[in-house]
Specification:
alpha/beta
Length: about 425
């Protein structure tokens, strides 16, 4: 599967392109801006782009009006097809957000229900009680996602709904040649629907990847051979920043050991979770970490740990943004153009190392040294070994551990390292040592 050897770059199109927060009905080709960033994405050594929602919606994209039509605030289907062609020409895969759990109130079928009520042919597309009411005072009750009545839950047991969604996915492949889907709130989505979606997509395009959003619990409920290839790793997301902020690297080490360690009870050894340090739903990592010196270190952990690394647009140069009360707008800004800083170059080096190393893409996980502020672990695959070393302290550290190796090359700097009895780690440092 191509995704297991990839580095993802996430863009939230409506914010990225500077579209109005509410759908104003005005057609404007803003999505072409993505093409202007292709060179930057390539320079980061990312080779897959994950687009958050970009189809016609009421406001933020997760309230879909029409799955078949690009949001007018971003342009036309032809505009987006051109962008996808340019991305594929640059050897960048395209993954879209599949928002299949719910739609917006402006969704054409729901609008028909509001107009025609019991006589609507689409009344069974949703979970509706015509004897109730909602906070929109529609004179009917319907199930919304987690109680949000602006997000109308679809009936994914209805065959017409299923076939409509499948026809839209087929259109996206035929029109845009997309390479996969990230399923919004996959933890809410009907399991039988996920099974059928997997079967449908397996027959639609070879190596079509399905990645699900899940916040906790047993990831294998939906990540398995019958459903999804991967899911979002929120457990390690929290552990990455929290362990650095509290000078307690045992936290992230515990999560990695629990998920990928060598023990028989390990949960996800051999799986490829989607890893991240921030995204469109959470505060930017540069606004969360207490010490800016830890920014390069958290990305070293991201690219060194098992799984698929994903970088959120703008965070590669340390952009800040704090999740607000009732709004995610600060997390989804419009940047005039990409920036290049020392952090950008560091992330590019980490991404290059990850993509070029089978050990980092597929390797087992094993802890070699762990203290509150120092962490060394090994990734190994078919005789290839890479040691990831982190010193999060403001003081240098002499690490003594059994590397079972003499010399190594740092994949980030190219320098050669002689282990001897251990290694000297400067303050706030990180290394990817490839054993030879």
């Amino acid at each position: 599967m191509w995704a297991y050897e990839s580095v993802f770059y996430q863009i939230y199109p409506l914010g990225f392109c500077g579209a109005p927060l509410q759908n104003d009905g005005q057609l404007q080709n803003r999505i072409q801006k993505t093409s202007d960033w292709i060179e930057h994405i390539q320079s980061l050594n990312a080779n897959a782009i994950y687009f958050s929602p970009l189809f016609e919606s009421d406001a933020h994209g997760y309230d879909t009006r029409d799955y078949r039509k690009l949001d007018c605030r971003l342009g036309t289907n032809e505009d987006f097809a051109q962008v996808c062609n340019q991305l594929h020409a640059a050897h960048i895969k395209v993954v879209l957000d599949g928002v299949f759990n719910h739609v917006g109130r402006g969704f054409w079928a729901f609008q028909d229900v509001l107009k025609n009520r019991e006589q609507s042919p689409y009344k069974d597309w949703f979970h509706i009680d015509f004897g109730g009411n909602s906070n929109y005072n529609d004179g009917l009750w319907y199930e919304g996602w987690e109680g949000h009545f602006d997000l109308v839950k679809l009936n994914l047991r209805n065959e017409e709904v299923i076939q409509h969604l499948f026809s839209c996915v087929r259109q996206w492949v035929e029109e845009f040649d997309i390479d996969g889907l990230r399923l919004d709130v996959a933890y809410c989505v009907d399991r039988d629907f996920l099974r059928r979606l997997r079967q449908f997509c397996d027959g639609l395009k070879p190596n079509f990847v399905l990645i699900g959003e899940i916040l906790g619990g047993d990831y294998k409920q939906i990540m398995n051979p019958e459903m999804l290839h991967s899911v979002t790793n929120y457990e390690c997301y929290k552990g990455l920043y929290s362990s650095l902020n509290t000078s307690n690297l045992f936290e992230i080490a515990h999560s990695l050991q629990r998920q990928f360690g060598p023990e028989n009870w390990t949960l996800y050894r051999g799986e490829h979770l989607l890893n991240f340090v921030d995204n469109h739903d959470v505060s930017r990592i540069a606004s969360i970490l207490n010490k800016p010196e830890h920014l390069p270190l958290i990305y070293a952990l991201l690219f060194g740990m098992p799984g698929i690394p994903c970088v959120y647009y703008g965070s590669e140069w340390g952009a800040q943004g704090v999740k607000g009360q009732g709004t995610d707008a600060p997390l989804r800004p419009c940047f005039e153009k990409p920036q290049s800083t020392s952090l950008t170059q560091w992330i590019a080096a980490c991404a290059k190392a990850h993509r070029e190393s089978k050990a980092l893409c597929y390797g087992d996980y094993h802890t070699l040294l762990l203290t509150n502020q120092q962490f060394i672990f090994e990734r190994s695959f078919e005789g290839n070994r890479v040691l990831i070393a982190i010193n999060a302290d403001s003081q240098p550290f002499d690490a003594h551990f059994n590397a079972n190796a003499g010399r190594a090359r740092d994949l980030l700097s190219g320098s050669v390292h002689d282990f001897g009895g251990g290694s000297h780690l400067p303050a706030y440092s990180a290394y990817f040592w490839e054993i030879f």
